[in-house]
Design goal:
The protein is an alpha/beta fold and 612 residues long. Helix content is 37%, strand content 24%. The protein contains 20 helices and 27 strands. The strands form five sheets. The protein has an eight-stranded antiparallel β-sheet, with helices on one face. The longest helix has 22 residues. The structure holds 6-O-phosphono-alpha-D-glucopyranose. The site of 6-O-phosphono-alpha-D-glucopyranose has 16 residues, from helix 10.
């Protein structure tokens, strides 16, 4: 949450910072700000989107070859101009941007107030910048040393960049549990929460590790120290990112672009890992730990949001195909209930961003208890990818829309390959069934493309139900997590209250809500429970609910009862979620657009949740 960007070099910093903030806006967008140093320090801050800041700065001085910027997702203090970052120390010497939470800020604030520091905002960040200044002044320390010593007094999570008015040729940055990437150009440096503001200038990057402090200088020097004052050797990597992936490419919203990319991203996820003709699945990330993973007594999947829904599908896949018990946990709950974890468990974290604070904390706990950890992550080089013992990337490219779409299908594809690989090794399914599933998985991208081709029909149905206040999503078996995900997509971006339920469980509560105003989306593709789900639809219709049924092509019965039918290509049951989730993504998208919502940046949400 919150995005930070900074520049030091020969170019004008302002355009780089503003462009960078727009790229980072998916991380938070309630206010933003920029500080530029050019003899004089200019700090501009505005409530609202980066565009509001840009309009405001239009008439102000924008010069300076050193600067820092921030786009905020409020934690401490309401979103307004004062609480927006950057924050400046009482004397006006230091200015800082921060992503994270300083947990002991209240105590620090009290002590600093006694020492004469004054505060304008309600933020924890303003406390931190004053703490660094206090340490700097009291002990006559250099900026980098003051940052290091101050951080030893801090409890919490942070990625920070600090600008010193008296040192216009230097920036100091640090991280603990919040991401920070350093981009290295020709005598210039970029610092950002991720690679998106950096990619068009340089592909040479360093991913800062926890408790590391980096100092970059105008003469091209860079040094990294640990919080314990040990010099670290910088590890320069190539940034795996293409600029085209960060542009809308003719689509109105990133979400729509990302929905339409899925035939390609699912294929990318499988590339080199599955061969239908030769009948094999092989995931490089598993090889090293394969024996241990095969010997595991239990898989525990930890994740949040949409990734938690993928995890549920993983549970169905592993139990169905590999016959291994699986538990799927909300990462945030898992760590606070003293879970039973042993060294015979494999803890699998699923995360698009690889930065979700709760998921990372759950993994830390699992490691402490001796479990082997495995990551299914999209963002290369992210914290979860680095923390886990092994893992696989889903390779779907940057996902910018806050509502996850292509990362979801990438995660499910990866989980399916993992289940198939283990099923083959453990001989828990027949070779014939294995080959059938592999062949069918290979065809999923074409089938997803077939669903995308009926976009207009889904848009029409969206128009019919767009004014609903509530919606119910029902599914059974593999389609139950699909129902949960469909409901989450709708509420996230259109603000219609929606619930996902196991179809049969509807009778134990939600049925009381059904009337002629209630759209009920039923994912009814399961061959194994076809009759049962048909009965559930009858139960909804008997109460005058509006049924939108997702059925297999050529289906005869349900289409007669449902108000609207969306036909999708038939597939093997364990692969249904990969196809059935597509019309639900489109349905939510169109409803949200028709309701005038900002689909890519829904209110109060953020793409990367780096606070617990
Ligand atoms: C936020 C995002 C969701 C995402 C969830 C988990 O809530 O808005 O789209 O599913 O975080 O994020 P992760 O990056 O761990 O998958």
């Amino acid at each position: 949450m919150c995005g930070i960007v900074a520049y030091l070099g020969k170019k004008q910093a302002y355009p780089i910072l503003v462009k960078g903030l727009k790229r980072l806006e998916y991380r938070g967008y309630d206010s933003s700000g920029i500080a530029l140093l050019n003899g004089k320090l200019n700090v501009y801050k505005k409530k609202g989107k980066v565009k509001e800041l840009e309009d405001f700065v239009e008439t102000q001085s924008k010069s300076g070859t050193i600067g820092i910027g921030h786009t905020r997702w409020a934690t401490h203090g309401k979103p307004d101009d004062t609480n927006a970052h950057p924050h400046t120390s009482s004397s006006g010497r230091l200015t800082l941007v921060h992503n994270g939470i300083i947990e002991n800020y209240a105590l620090l604030k009290e002590a600093l107030t006694k020492l004469g520091h004054t505060f304008k905002s309600e933020t924890d960040t303003e406390v931190l910048v004053n703490l660094i200044e206090e340490v700097q002044n009291a002990d006559g320390l250099s900026l980098e040393e003051a940052v290091r010593v101050a951080l030893t007094k801090v409890v919490g999570a942070y990625a920070i960049v600090v600008l010193d008015k008296n040192e216009p040729d230097k920036l100091v940055a640090a991280r603990q549990s919040s991401p920070l990437v350093v981009g290295i150009g020709e005598d210039e440096f970029y610092l950002a929460s991720d690679g998106t503001p950096i990619v068009e200038y340089t592909k040479k990057v360093i991913y800062l590790k926890d408790e590391e402090i980096v100092t970059v200088k105008r003469n091209g020097d860079i040094s990294i120290k640990s919080i314990n004052n040990e010099l670290q050797t910088p590890f320069i990597q190539e940034l795996e990112m293409e600029i085209e992936a960060l542009e809308k490419g003719g689509y109105d919203f990133f979400m729509l672009k990302e929905i339409h990319e899925q035939p390609k991203t699912i294929a990318e996820c499988m590339r080199g890992r599955l061969n239908a003709e030769e009948g094999w699945v092989s995931l490089g990330g598993v090889q090293e730990l394969k024996e241990k993973m095969l010997a595991a007594q239990r898989f525990i999947i930890v994740s949040c949001g949409t990734s938690w829904h993928s995890g549920l599908i993983g549970e169905y896949l592993f139990e169905d195909l590999v016959r291994i018990p699986v538990e799927v946990e909300y990462a945030s709950e898992f760590r606070y209930r003293n879970p039973v974890i042993t060294d015979k468990d494999i803890v699998i974290a699923i995360s698009q961003s690889g930065e979700t604070a709760d998921t990372l904390a759950a993994l830390k706990l699992a490691k402490e208890k001796g479990a082997l950890t495995f990551g299914i992550v999209n963002v290369v080089g992210s914290s979860i990818a680095r923390f886990t013992d092994a893992g696989c990337y889903i390779h779907v490219g940057p996902e910018i829309g806050v509502a996850s779409t292509k990362a979801f299908t990438g995660q499910v594809t990866l989980l399916t390959m993992l289940a198939l690989m283990f099923a083959k090794e453990k001989k828990t399914i027949s070779d014939t069934y294995f080959n059938q599933l592999v062949t069918e998985l290979d065809r999923i991208p074409e089938k997803v493309a077939e669903v995308l081709a009926i976009n207009k029909q889904i848009e029409y149905i969206a128009g019919e139900i767009k004014d609903a206040q509530n919606a119910l999503y029902l599914g059974r078996g593999y389609n139950f997590p699909v129902a949960l995900e469909g409901a989450l997509k709708l509420k996230e971006i259109s603000y219609i209250h929606a619930e996902g339920y196991p179809a049969a469980e509807m009778k134990h509560g939600p049925i009381a809500l059904i009337d002629e105003n209630m759209p009920v989306v039923v994912i009814a593709t399961n061959s194994s429970a076809y009759e049962k789900i048909t009965s559930n639809i009858q139960e909804v219709k008997a109460r005058r609910g509006i049924v939108i049924a997702i059925v297999e092509k050529g289906e005869q019965e349900i289409s007669k009862i449902a108000d609207y039918t969306i036909e999708i290509p038939a597939t093997e049951e364990p692969l249904t979620p990969l196809i059935a989730s597509i019309p639900l993504q489109l349905l939510s998208y169109h409803i949200a657009v028709m309701r005038g919502c900002n689909v890519d940046q829904p209110r109060n949400l953020a793409k990367s949740v780096t606070v617990e």
